[in-house]
Amino acid sequence: MYVGRLCVAIAIYLSAALKFNVAAPLDLLVTSFLLVATVVVTIASYWHTHIRGRLPGRTFLYAQALYDVALITAVVHVTGGPQSDLTPLYVPLIAVTAVLMPPASTALITALVGIVYFADVFFGHRTPMTAQVGLQLAVFVAVAAVTAYFASRVSVMGAEREALAGELRQARLEAADVLRNIPTGIVTVDADGQLLYCNPAAEQILGFKERQWRGRSVMPEFARIAPEFWAAITATARRGVRAMRVEATVRRPDRTFPIGVTTTTLEVETGGTPRVTAIFTDISDSKRLEELHLRAERLEAVAELSASLAHEIKNPLASIRSSVEQLGRAKRANPDEKFLTGLVVRESDRLSRLLSEFLDFSRVRATECRPLDLHAVAAAAIRLVREHSDCPDDAVIDLAGGSTAMEGDEDLLHRVVSNLVLNAVQAAGKGARVTVRTGRPAPHELPRGAGIENPVALAVSDNGPGIPENLRARLFDPFVTGRVGGTGLGLAIVQRAVEAHRGLVLVDSTEGKGTTFTVYFPADRRKEEAA
Asked: Among 60, 152, 437, 528, which is disulfide-ready with 400 (CB 3.0 to 4.6 Å)?
């Protein structure tokens, strides 16, 4: 726009100068003034919009349009008015105005052009109204209308395009934000196994950095870390076989854990290489919870069977004991018979105690639910264990944490703590050091999907030899014990008592480094039952 304005002014001035001999002095003066004014206005406008970097506002555009109207009118006037060949210069002026300004402003400038042109024709050159003049005015109006219409359509399309682009940017940002923050790993590779995408969760689960493998074949690394994961991606890439919740094992230096994997292929353009996306997540917590539920169901079945068998056996056993005892007291009984009857009586008593423990195991129920302090319950249980005959004299039992309010059966919780602490000191033996901690767990400590609202935690840690690998899966089953002389019912009772409180118990043990039992309870047990 600036260059066109200068070109017009310079061309008119040169034309007047070349025709100096025939041109009127006033026309030459006017063209000289227009040239100087145009240069000044153009430089000022360029400085405002390009040097200062200001956006052209409505006032600026009005000023530019008014100056251009004045410039073109002056040019048309000195070049013949109605007979001027430069009258069409009004057309680009009107068109540019229609593009840059609203329709109302375009109509105003078009009306101004018509008025000044009409005034120049009738008053400046005293020419009567002709068809040519009417045609020029009609052209001005037509150009303004057509250009304004198309400009408005372009403006609407531009606004819609900007809105669509904004929505697309927002969708991409939201999708990227979701992919960055979800705990599910997502990996995309091409047909050659080159890594195309890997979100932070995938980096954390698989234990490698995307920047080290982007654009490189990552399949050998997958085969090393998780062979089943590699096999699922390979099957999808080569044969199009999609994996649906396949279980794989990730083997990292720090730990080994299961993941659930689903693979899919991405649609690509014709001739493009296929891409495979694997979606996976750490299912350690879900597997753990599944084992807990199976364990609880198994214990419930054992408890029902135990109660039935104990009742069926205990009464006949009492009769047998009484009869044998009477036979042993007979005067005709010889020493061997007395020894054997005494042995039968002792073993009957031992079997009776075992049956009583079985009945006790089957009767574990949370009968009384009331507000209590788990920390105080733990303190009372620790005092009891310290007086137990199996507690070594040099055993150290520390209680950490603070007041922990919850609702539950105090007697049952007392048994949970005392059983866990007694097991700990018995397992650790001489020099036992046991730490009992109560409090509220951090959100990440509770397994995902545990379903315990407002949880409280009880943790019992020892410095014992740890639990052998072959016992861990059956640790809470009745009669499973790693201690000589143990009945194997202590942890089974703990499991039943925790289940009665709608809680869960987890075990972390490393051979040679000790064991930690962590129990989670809902603080509001009555609300938990209502739910």
From this structure: 437
* Calpha distance 195→183 (Å, rounded): 20
Question: What average pLDDT does this structure show over 289-305?
Answer: 70
Average pLDDT of every residue of the chain:
77
Distance (Å, whole) CA 362 – CA 470:
26
CATH number of 370-522: 3.30.565.10
Q: How far apart are CA 452 and CA 458, in angstroms?
A: 14
Q: How many CB atoms lie within 10 A of CB 464?
A: 24
CA distance between the termini of the chain: 74
Amino acid at 19: K
- Given pLDDT bands bounded at 50, 70 and 90, which one contains residue 20? very low
Q: Is the pLDDT of residue 19 over 50?
A: no
The whole-angstrom separation of Cα 6 and Cα 19 is 20
How would residue 29 be classed by pLDDT, with cut points 50, 70 and 90?
low
Rounded CA gap, 85 and 8, in Å?
Answer: 13
Residue with tokens 């700990």: 424
Pick the CATH number of 289-363 from 1.10.10, 1.10.287, 1.10.150, 2.60.120: 1.10.287
**HSE (CB half, 13 Å, CA atoms) of 199?**
19
- Domain 185-285: which topology? Beta-Lactamase (3.30.450)
CA–CA gap between residue 110 and residue 116 (Å, rounded): 10
Residue ranges of domains in the chain: 1-158, 185-285, 289-363, 370-522
C-alpha distance from residue 476 to each of 296, 483, 495 (Å) = 9, 14, 7
Tens digit of each residue's pLDDT (9 = 90 or more) over 101-113:
777 777 777 777 7
CA-to-CA dists, residue 112 to 58, 61, 68, 69, 118, angstroms: 17, 15, 12, 8, 10
* Residue-wise pLDDT tens digits, 421-467: 998 998 888 888 999 999 999 887 887 777 788 899 999 999 988 88
CA-to-CA distance for 270 and 264, rounded, in angstroms?
18
Report helix angle 335-362 to 490-500, nearest 10.
20
CB contact at 8 A, 219 and 234: yes
Confidence of residue 273 (pLDDT cuts 50, 70, 90): low
Question: Phi then psi for 517, rounded to 5 degrees?
Answer: -100, 125
